[in-house]
Amino acid sequence: MVLSTKDKILAKALTLFNEQGSDFVTVRHIASELGISHGNLCYHFANTDVIIEALYQQLVDKLNELTIQMTGLSENQLTILYQLSYRSFEILYQYRFLMLDFVRIMRRIPAIKLHFKALMQIRQEQFKHIITSMQANGFIDIPEKNIAPLIEQALLFGDFWISRAEILFDGNEQEKTAYYHKTFYALFEPYLCGNADW
Amino acid sequence: MVLSTKDKILAKALTLFNEQGSDFVTVRHIASELGISHGNLCYHFANTDVIIEALYQQLVDKLNELTIQMTGLSENQLTILYQLSYRSFEILYQYRFLMLDFVRIMRRIPAIKLHFKALMQIRQEQFKHIITSMQANGFIDIPEKNIAPLIEQALLFGDFWISRAEILFDGNEQEKTAYYHKTFYALFEPYLCGNADW
DNA sequence: ATACTTTTAGTACATTTGTTCTAAATTCTA
DNA sequence: TAGAATTTAGAACAAATGTACTAAAAGTAT
User: Do residues B65 and A128 make contact, with C-beta atoms less than 8 angstroms apart?
Assistant: First the structure.
């Protein structure tokens, strides 16, 4: 299975963006790394913004696919929350430049900003639904007034743990995602009922 | 009291950085906004990185001054935690471009990255000290194993609420800091003992 | 095989930016 | 006030970048 030029460009761009940040990386750099002319690259993608949009779309697609997979599962909701968030962390980390350059990208590419705002709205409602549902099933016990802050905390953590890790995490690369996910999950711990043992 | 050219440059740069992001803003832009030549500006600050370093230093100085002020207070520790974090949020918001462009700046200016890592180490220990002290005085009740995650959550939130707000907060500008600080403070609420009423 | 489309390399140009330099203007000091 | 130091404006240059264009090469369909 050989990749098309388009796919090779996207893959290489993702690597370079993650390593160096989405500024610092130009169409010429990407082309040079691939050993193709930048003229050719611009034939496929007019500029880096278009590449970023394409990669953002990849991320969204993967997260959507994951959500569909998970909601089909018959596990208990606590397990689903845990698994869903962990695998989201992993996927997000693959596309980490999007979070590392969060504000810059949103400012630069209005289409992504708009889409992301809508996405956050949906995620917030999903979260709310999961929590109230877990509440009803006796998995957690959380006062009504604490729900909104908890969701806000969780979404914020989910978006920015990568940025914090980029600068401050000194441990093993393999443990990075696991460490931050554990800290993420600890947000819910004060409210968990006893029947959760892990 | 008339500002020196140096101070005028720093003030204008801060405004432009906050509005547009620290990339997009060049020495020429700043000079143009001030109505001075960029040659003159470069006489005072060789490039934007130097300006960013100077502004970062201003922020650190203000936060240090605040910490000194607050530790001198005779209020109870809960009040101090609340006040200290709230005023930190306000100061940080004044220099918000540093957080909005967090990763980019740290990658670009190693001196800031090093300093920031050291600063975070200190902050973490301060937090730990406050929490164990509050624990000893019966203000909070938190299991030992939850302390480290709570501190990590608090520091992460403290650094990145501004980025989230920049894209997603739709409310009144005046209420922004208050809203996120409230959410920040809610991190501690599950562990607070009854004698805290606000 | 021929005509057509897609893909590719390479060139060229305008713009922006960082940086340096010079000389004039201003301020300070003795 | 005269001379020195500082500050300022503006020009000049190199490097990087986005963008557009041309023409060749490769691939495809009839």
Answer: no
**Whether the model pTM is above 0.85:** yes
| Cβ-based burial of A189 (10 A; exposed 0-12, middle 13-18, buried ≥19) | middle
Q: What averages of pLDDT result for each successive group of 10 residues across chain A (198 residues)?
A: 84 95 94 93 94 95 93 83 94 96 94 94 91 90 94 97 95 93 95 65
pLDDT, tens only, B59-104: 999 999 999 998 887 778 888 899 999 999 999 999 999 999 999 9
Q: Enumerate the residues of chain A whose CB falls inside 8 A of the CB of residue B168.
A: 117, 120
Q: Is the CB of B29 under 7 A from strand C?
A: yes
In this prediction, residue B198 carries a pLDDT of 45
- Which residues does chain B have within 8 Å of residue A160's beta carbon, measured at their own beta carbons? 156, 159-160, 163-164
Q: Which nucleotide is nearest to B42 (CA to C1')?
A: C19
**List of chain B residues whose C-beta atoms are within 8 Å of the C-beta of residue A156:** 156-157, 160-161, 164
Asked if A152's CB is within 8 angstroms of B120's CB, the reply is: no
**Interface contact flag, B167 A103, Cβ < 8 Å:** yes
- Residue ranges and CATH numbers for the domains of chain B are 1-46 (1.10.10.60), 52-191 (1.10.357.10)
Can you tell me which residue has the tokens 């000079």? B31
Distance in Å from C15's C1' to A51's CA comes to 22
Q: What is the pLDDT of residues A115-128, one digit of tens each?
A: 999 999 999 998 89
